[in-house]
């Protein structure tokens, strides 16, 4: 949704808001609510991190790739809180055991799966629109 709202905000002077909201399939009230929201903590952290990345890249005269930049970030970044587990961190243990496999007796008279489809002739009429 954020990408749609950002597009509407970018094109705000070129087209009426109501039209753009209709084209983007969002409500006008949702768009105006999005405009009035404060910036989230995640967005602030990402913006600050992007600034640190640009600083490290510029200091390297544009020669550092993502590996060197990532290695240089902990020393320059004020907060080093990874949002996802890295390859070097140990995997977290499972908090609950895997469910035991269930078996059902196979019987030709009792179907093991149930569908919510209507019977075949009725289904064909629905598909044809009769």
From TrEMBL:
Superkingdom, taxonomy of origin: Bacteria
Secretion signal span: none
Region annotation (Disordered) ranges: 70-120
Compositionally biased intervals (Low complexity): 74-95, 103-113
Domain HTH-like: 46-73
Protein's recorded name: HTH-like domain-containing protein
């Amino acid at each position: 949704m954020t990408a749609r709202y950002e597009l509407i905000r970018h094109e705000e002077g070129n087209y009426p808001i109501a039209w753009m909201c209709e084209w983007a399939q969002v409500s006008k009230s949702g768009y105006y609510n999005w405009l009035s929201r404060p910036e989230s903590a995640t967005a602030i952290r990402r913006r600050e991190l992007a600034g640190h990345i640009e600083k490290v890249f510029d200091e390297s005269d544009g020669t550092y790739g993502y590996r060197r930049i990532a290695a240089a970030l902990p020393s320059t970044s004020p907060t080093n809180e990874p949002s996802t587990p890295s390859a070097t961190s140990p995997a977290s243990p499972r908090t609950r055991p895997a469910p035991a496999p269930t078996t059902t007796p196979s019987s030709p008279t009792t179907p093991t799966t149930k569908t919510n489809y209507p019977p075949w002739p009725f289904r064909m009429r629905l598909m044809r629109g009769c």
